[in-house]
């Protein structure tokens, strides 16, 4: 017995939906894996691995390591500190030396 045109259309549509669901599940799984990989390193010192704490310096949030006392600046923060005032770097480093 040969399937009718409507049956073939229905089967094709069901297969397409099944493939789409599978693709969505795979994408969600990969997104979850990528997020899981980022979480362990979030706010960790790249040098020693201790936790980083945000310290306010004027309008800039600077990340300071609780282990090695290293300071880490996010993109654009160093130029922002440099523009704050004359001698901004000297004041920044004296502030962090506390």
Largest sheet: 3 strands, antiparallel
Principal-axes geometry comes out as rod-shaped
Trace the largest sheet across and list its strands: 1-2-3
Distance between the termini: 86 Å
Give me the secondary-structure topology.
Layout: H1 5-38, E1 52-57, E2 60-65, E3 71-72, H2 77-84, H3 88-96
Antiparallel strand pairs: 1-2, 2-3
Polypeptide structure, described:
The chain is built from 3 helices and 3 strands; from the N terminus they run αβββαα. The protein has 98 residues and is of the alpha+beta class. It has a 3-stranded antiparallel sheet with strand order 1-2-3. The protein is rod-shaped.
Provide a concise account of the structure shown:
By secondary structure, this protein is an alpha+beta fold.
Characteristics:
3-stranded antiparallel sheet, 98 residues, rod-shaped, alpha+beta, 14% strand
């Amino acid at each position: 017995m040969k399937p009718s045109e409507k049956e073939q259309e229905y089967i094709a549509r069901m297969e397409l939906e099944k493939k789409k669901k599978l693709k969505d599940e795979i994408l969600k799984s990969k997104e979850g894996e990528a997020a899981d990989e980022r979480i362990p390193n979030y706010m960790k010192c790249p040098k020693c691995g201790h936790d980083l704490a945000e310290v306010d310096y004027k309008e800039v949030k600077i990340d300071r390591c609780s282990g090695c006392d290293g300071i880490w600046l996010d993109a654009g923060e160093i130029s922002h500190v440099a523009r704050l005032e004359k001698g901004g770097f000297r004041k920044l480093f004296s502030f962090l030396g506390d």
